[in-house]
Structure formats: structure tokens, C-alpha cells
Amino acid sequence: MRRIIISGCCGHMGRAVADICNNDPNVEIAAGIDLLPQPVDGFPVFSTPAACTAEADAVIDFSHPAALAPLLELCIARKLPVVLATTGYSAEQLAQIEQAAKLIPIFRSANMSLGVNVLLDLVRRAAALLGEDFDVEIEERHHRRKLDAPSGTALMLADAAAGALPYDAEYVYDRHSVRRPRGSQEIGISSLRGGTIVGDHTVVFAGRDEVIELSHHAASREVFAVGAVKAAKFLAGVDAPGLYDMSSLIAVN
User: Where does the chain have alpha helices with state H?
Assistant: First the structure.
């Protein structure tokens, strides 16, 4: 039985994680952490990481980048592995995560979906095969409440393509301010926000007289919650500090 602390437990994703945990006989929710705590059946909720006294085997974080520092302090002090599923971290915060990973196991991914991670592999292969003969554009769509743009997943896809291309790609996020033809070494990234879209990502390879599109559509938040719980169960069995990601999880399955 793995005991899990859910950071951001009162948010949309936190509740989805709780639902998955409640239906998994091998997982128990030890506690929740939320800046705006609400009564939750089945486990205590604390307003700050420092206030959390529950014993656990791992932490799942679906909260906000601002919560990173106190959460890492808790995990380092208690030697707790942590799954960071929050997006929108700054460069300074990413450096903090790398430093913390020298002390505890940390699993970080901008997208917890297995399907998205398959898409990443397909994008790498397509970019390597198509090379400079095809322009690469990425479109991502999310619900109206999402704070960061572009999405962390869109940046992962851009990095996957850029790493396989035969040139140093330039990311272009906002074409309305750029009054010139598209550069041959650009990767355009476009964001759409509206309604209740869970998450759609499309990578377009546009060549002469032909277009290839690779897409992933998330129909519910459950796909991300399932991945996060799998990551927490995996991380709870890891002894060595380090920075882990979906490739680590896929390798053991």
C-alpha cells in the first residue's frame, strides 16, 4: 500500500488524482495540501506544506509554480519523493528542482499522459526523417482557466523536434509582431484558450505540396491523473535521488 500526499488537492486535477487513488486498492491518500483548503471526505487537508504532518511514501503536486519552494522544503526535510506535474516553472525554479533532485527522487513531466509521450517519440522520428525540407509548427489548445502559454507540453514537443532537426531551431510564439516571411529555421508555437478543452496538441510538418500532422487529444483530465499516480507508485519504490521522467516509468513497464 502506497500512501500519497496530494498537493493542490482541491483543484480540478487534485480532485481527479483523488478519484484515481480512491479506486486503486494499492494506494491510500494520506493527506492533501491546498492554499485554499476545503473539506474533503477521507483525508485531512493542510493549508501549507509546513503544516502537513501526515506520513507518506510520495507526494503528487498539481498546484501552482508559486508552491514549489515550500513543497520542496517539505520533501527534502522528510525525504519524500515528489511527482511534479505542475507547469509554468521559471528558469530559476527549474534550477531549484535540479538541485533538490540531488537529495531526493523527483519525477517531473509537463504532461503525464502516456499517449503524449508516444507522440514525443513520433515527433522526434518525423523531424529526423523530414529534416529541413519541412516547416514545423505546433498548435496547442486548452481551457480558458489555464494560466501559462504556451503549454509545457507544446514546449516539450518543440524540444523533441528541435533536437532531431539538422539546424538550431528558433522558437516563434507571436507572429503578429513579426512582419516578415517565415524563417526556414523557425518552429512556430500557437496557443488557443477557451471553453473546457482539456488539452489538444498538434505538430504540423508542412512541406512542398504535402502536410503531415501528428496530434493528441485528451478527452478528460483522468489521463493525466492516471499517469501521475503511476509515477508516484514508481517513485515510492526508488531509493536513489535523481530527476526522473516518463521515459523512466515506461522503461520499467
Answer: 12-22, 68-78, 91-100, 114-130, 152-164, 222-236, 246-251
Cell of 206: 508542412
Strand order of the β-sheet with 82-84 is: 45-46, 27-33, 2-7, 58-61, 82-84, 105-108, 242-244
CB 87 within 8 A of CB 152: yes
* Predicted TM-score (pTM) above 0.70: yes
Q: How many whole angstroms separate alpha carbon 49 and alpha carbon 120?
A: 33
Which tens digit of pLDDT belongs to each residue from 128-137? 999 999 999 9
User: Which cell numbers in the block locate residue 14?
Assistant: 487534485
What pLDDT digit, counting tens, does each position of 24-52 carry?
A: 999 999 999 999 888 788 899 999 999 99
Q: Is 142 a catalytic residue?
A: yes
- Of 102, 146, 176, 216, the active-site residue reads 146
Task: Tell me whether residue 143 is one of the annotated catalytic residues.
Answer: no
Given the C-alpha cell 516563434, which residue does it identify?
A: 172
What average pLDDT does the segment 144-153 reach?
90
Q: Which residue is catalytic, options 12, 79, 142, 217?
A: 142
